[in-house]
């Protein structure tokens, strides 16, 4: 079964995460295929808007800690850094800067690595049951690799969810500006597609320039430099995890992820 689905509807590229049986946990293959789908949409002149959605009950439970790809006999920080620099930093920044408006449609759980899929999108439409969380402090790591927390939530709310690991509800996310709209679950896809359709009617060059203007403003304020520098800080968390019992310490959240499959 393809882990990523891709289709174009009325000038809107629809990219779908398609591992519902695993709560759309991210394997290396899924992330590579997702990046290819984003690149395909970016290079298609017929596509005006990109919609990212997910099949199943949950948007994404984050990185697949069990089946994320081949694991070498000896895990080193160098190996982790190399893998994550490409798939967790390079990919997400590229998706953020695709010169076309993008919309994430989020339902259910969006945990840790799931944030790095929706946060690079320009707009987020959330179902009423959506919950956003980054509980990796439990694993001795200070936050997910794409550290947009401060920009998306504000500094004090960002600290609260990191310090406690508690989820942010859809309504709460809307109040702080992380989410554009909250709708009933059954209206999620239709709302995202309706919004995409409205945007697709606008002049494509003007859309590109408007997106560039906002993203560059954030970059001037320090967004890009912060994402890069905090990624390096994130790697010290892996060093901490490796020194605290080896790589298996990174599996501490697997029980929670396994439960999602049956919810």
From TrEMBL:
| GO terms of biological process kind | fatty acid beta-oxidation
A molecular function (GO) held by this record is: enoyl-CoA hydratase activity
The record ties this protein, via SUPFAM superfamilies, to:
ClpP/crotonase
Q: Which UniProt keywords apply?
A: Lyase
What is the E.C. number? 4.2.1.17
Q: Spell out the InterPro entries in the cross-references.
A: ClpP/crotonase-like_dom_sf, Enoyl-CoA_hydra/iso
Domain of life, per lineage = Bacteria
Q: What is this protein called?
A: Enoyl-CoA hydratase
Q: State the organism named in the record.
A: Actinomadura physcomitrii
